[in-house]
Amino acid sequence: MSGAPYVYTPVERTSRRLGLFLLIVLGLGLTMMLFFVKTRAQDARDEVSRLEAQIEEHELAISVLSAEAAVLSNSERLRQLSRDRLALAPVTTDTTATLTELEETP
Predict the structure, then answer these.
(1) Which UniProt keywords apply (predicted)?
(2) Roughly how many angstroms between the first and final C-alpha of the chain, as a whole number?
(3) DSSP 3-state assignment of 79?
(4) How many angstroms separate the CA atoms of 72 and 66, rounded?
């Protein structure tokens, strides 16, 4: 073993430079891929946030509509409307007819 430094041959020097160049290109490619994946992940997070906000708005609208439907289908309210607007009254026994009475009427 001598103390002289190792001298690379021109072929070794070229292959080392080529290897270094390929590593740099690979590193840049991986960095760009990581950037695009990170950007797409952020876009997906933003989309999820937007959809969650939209779901909350729709759930609120559904609850309001359910409350309105409950008020509108209240039996006492419907009874009052039918009495006031349509002049309808509950069916009583004196307003009903039997089958034989219906067959007798012309």
Answers:
(1) Coiled coil, Membrane, Transmembrane, Transmembrane helix
(2) 133
(3) helix
(4) 10
Helices vs. strands in the chain: H and E counts, helices first: 3, 0
Say if CB 77 and CB 71 are below 8 A apart.
yes
Q: How far apart are CA 6 and CA 36, in angstroms?
A: 43
What are the structural domain ranges in the chain?
10-88
CA distance 51 to 61: 15
What does the pLDDT look like over 66-104, one tens digit per residue?
999 999 999 899 889 888 888 887 777 777 777 787 777
36, 42 contact by CB (below 8 A): no
Angle at 83 between CA 82 and CA 85, to 5 degrees: 65
- Sequence-ordered strand ranges (E) for 52-99: none
Query: Which CA distances in Å does 16 have to 6, 7, 11, 27, 102?
Result: 14, 13, 9, 16, 110
89: phi > 0 → left, psi -120 to 50 → alpha, else beta; which?
beta
